[in-house]
Amino acid sequence: MVALVLLAALLYRFREVQMAVERTAVVSVLDTIRAGVWLEAAARIGVEGDGALVHLATENPFPALHGAVSSYAGVISGNDRNLQAGAWYFDVQRKKILYQPRFSENFFTSEMTSGSVEFTIAAVYQESPPHGRVFEGMRLTGQCACEWLPKHYAVSPAGRKQ
Predict the structure, then answer these.
(1) Can you give the pTM of this predicted structure?
(2) Which three-class secondary structure state does DSSP give residue 115?
(3) Is 74 in a helix, a strand, or coil?
(4) Half-sphere exposure of residue 126: CA atoms within 13 angstroms, side-chain side
(5) In DSSP terms, which residues pair with 141 in a beta bridge?
(6) Host H or E run for residue 135
(7) Residues of 114-143 as b/e, b for ≥16 C-beta within 10 angstroms?
């Protein structure tokens, strides 16, 4: 009987560790994508001007990372069924980054269930009266109910996809 209780506790703890590992891996990939997008934005804005940032926000960021995301599985076109668990994709039709969770409870609540988690890239501007519209940076945001996701990747509850 004691062995059964210990086994149950061990399995529960193992599950917690698996979830923590997935969360850490996701944030690490998002940090990599974010850094790559910022570097690409800096390179393009000097040469092509502000218009290049609009295009950058709709492009697949993975090729520019030169293999830095080993779990990148390729491009898809609108159909996010049958994706490999733990893999990253770029949806060329919807212009979104997708992650297929290994453990969906890391990302979804009982009200929000989906096969994959979507992330979008956007150029962020701020209005400045003396200068007009000023480029602030590139933002990568996730459409999930992830309380653990760092704030700079999270979207407000009102903006989440239902």
Answers:
(1) 0.82
(2) coil
(3) strand
(4) 6
(5) 120
(6) strand 132-142
(7) eebbbbbbebeeeeeeeeeeeeebbbbbbb
Q: CA 74, CA 143: separation in Å to the nearest integer?
A: 20
**pLDDT tens across 125-152, in order?**
888 888 888 888 899 998 876 777 888 8
- The kind and range of the H/E element at 6 are helix 2-48
pLDDT tens per residue, range 34-76? 999 999 999 998 888 878 888 899 999 999 999 999 999 999 9
Indicate the residue type of 39.
Answer: L
Q: At residue 12, what is the residue type?
A: Y
Give the position of tokens 């917690």.
16
Query: CA-to-CA distance for 5 and 91, rounded, in angstroms?
Result: 45
Token code pair at residue 96: 């979104």
For 2, 28, 111, 127, the CA distances from 6, given in Å and listed in that order, are 6, 33, 33, 59
Is-contact 36 72, C-beta < 8 A? no
Tokens of 140: 């990568």
Helix (H, G, I), strand (E, B) or coil at 83: coil
Q: Kindly report the length of the chain.
A: 162
Closest Cα to residue 150, out of 10, 1, 24?
24
